[in-house]
């Protein structure tokens, strides 16, 4: 019920068009890159999917992060506008339920964007390379890994947006975190666990032992941020 309510509220905002347009823009990155520089990539001996991820994923991940930040800000801007949050407190609905419903919708939206990007990568391989037997499995693994690594960013950014009544503050915090993430070296595992740095990781550039460690880190971070949000909501309720 809460998820349906949150979805109805978002239909009146630019949330869905923003994600659809952002997904198309991100999906055009590998296509545009291949259109203008295909001769650089087609002669490489590496697997086609690895070539495309290495050449395009940093930009695609950056656009995905922008969508996460903007999406979370839009969600809570509608709550704080015209004191809607105070009105919601008067209803028999838990704020934690609202939070996790928003988190769920934001997660599904990013998965939809990743699906559009996967279709774009499949088109590039079909048009400029040749399909091979393991292609579909490798693509699903790569996109699935990207979706898993995005979860801490999703829940953290949703939490940041829930704290800030002014949308521009949460937007600024999110953008600052994004640019901090771009300066973190991938070789440092501890720093790479920074939630906004995780989406830049790819399955192709990560050792098999590190993959399990990253997934464990994602689970721990998601649990910690979820518990922190529950504590924050209880404390805020007492002081309102």
Could you please describe the fold and organization of this structure?
- The model has no long low-confidence stretch (mean pLDDT 88).
- The protein starts with a helix and ends with a helix.
- It has one domain.
- The chain has helices at residues 2-10, 15-41, 48-80, 84-89, 95-128, 135-163, 167-182, 189-192, 208-239.
- The chain has 9 helices and no strands.
- Helix 5 (95-128) packs antiparallel against helix 6 (135-163).
- It has 240 residues and is an all-alpha fold.
The sequence of SSEs as H and E is HHHHHHHHH
Q: Major sheet: size, sense and barrel closure? A: none
In whole angstroms, the N-to-C terminal distance is 25 Å
Please report which band the strand proportion falls in: under 5%, 5-15%, 15-25%, 25-35%, 35-45% or over 45%. Answer: under 5%
Portion of residues within helices: over 70%
Give structural attributes:
240 residues, mainly alpha, membrane, ABC transporter permease, transmembrane, transmembrane helix
SSE order and pairing:
Blueprint: H1 2-10, H2 15-41, H3 48-80, H4 84-89, H5 95-128, H6 135-163, H7 167-182, H8 189-192, H9 208-239
Helix pairs in contact: 1-5, 2-3, 2-5, 3-5, 3-6, 3-7, 5-6, 6-7, 6-9
Question: What's this entry about, in short?
Answer:
The protein is mainly α and 240 residues long.
């Amino acid at each position: 019920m809460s998820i349906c309510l949150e979805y109805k509220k978002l239909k009146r905002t630019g949330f869905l068009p923003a994600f659809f347009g952002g997904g198309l823009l991100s999906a055009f990155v590998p296509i545009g890159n291949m259109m203008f520089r295909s001769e650089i990539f087609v002669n490489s001996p590496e697997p086609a999917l690895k070539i495309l991820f290495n050449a395009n994923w940093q930009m695609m991940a950056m656009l995905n992060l922008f969508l996460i930040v903007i999406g979370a800000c839009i969600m809570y801007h509608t709550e704080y506008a015209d004191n809607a949050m105070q009105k919601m407190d008067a209803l028999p609905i838990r704020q934690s339920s609202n939070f996790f419903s928003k988190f769920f919708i934001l997660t599904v939206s990013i998965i939809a964007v990743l699906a559009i990007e996967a279709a774009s990568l499949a088109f590039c391989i079909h048009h400029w390379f040749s399909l091979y037997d393991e292609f579909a499995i490798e693509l699903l693994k790569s996109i699935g890994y990207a979706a898993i690594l995005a979860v801490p960013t999703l829940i953290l950014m949703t939490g940041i947006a829930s704290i800030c009544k002014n949308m521009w503050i949460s937007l600024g915090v999110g953008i600052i975190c994004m640019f901090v993430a771009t300066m973190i070296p991938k070789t440092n595992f501890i720093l790479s666990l920074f939630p906004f740095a995780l989406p830049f990781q790819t399955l192709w550039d990560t050792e098999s032992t590190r993959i399990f460690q990253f997934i464990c880190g994602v689970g721990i971070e998601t649990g910690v941020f979820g518990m922190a949000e529950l504590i924050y909501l209880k404390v805020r309720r007492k002081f309102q």
